[in-house]
Amino acid sequence: MSYTTSLLRWLQRKRYQYEVTFSLYMLTPTEKFIFNSFLFLFISMIIIAALLYLPEHIVNLWYRAWYYYAGDDAAAGGKAGAMVGKSGGTRVGGPGGLRI
Fold first, then answer.
1. Which distant-in-sequence residues (6+ apart) come within 8 Å of 22 by Cβ?
2. Which of 7, 35, 38 has the alpha carbon at shortest distance from 19?
3. 63: closest CA among 88, 48, 49, 83?
4. pTM of the prediction?
5. CA–CA gap between residue 50 and residue 24 (Å, rounded)
6. 45-73 residue pLDDT tens
7. What is the pLDDT of residue 85?
8. Which stretches within the chain are classed as H helix?
9. What are phi and psi of 95, to 5 degrees?
10. pLDDT recorded at residue 95
11. pLDDT value for 71
């Protein structure tokens, strides 16, 4: 059996497993299209959100963990030091936000 034939059989098996797992085999082609479209959009939005927001969130968690460890805003690096306003308090809620 050639490599192409075995790959094709594997893909067909995976498609069959997908349809049986989610009970798509009993839907009409239009319903399958709608279900697959929603699934694709949902997974795409999850991936895009993870790629856009997860790295920044991990950095913020790192700075917070370092703050808990070291206990000093200046020791946490530039980002935590940049959050401190002129009056020495930390801004909450953006540039015009509440000072703590």
1. 35
2. 35
3. 83
4. 0.55
5. 28
6. 999 999 999 999 999 999 999 999 988 76
7. 47
8. 3-21, 29-70, 78-82
9. -60, -35
10. 56
11. 84
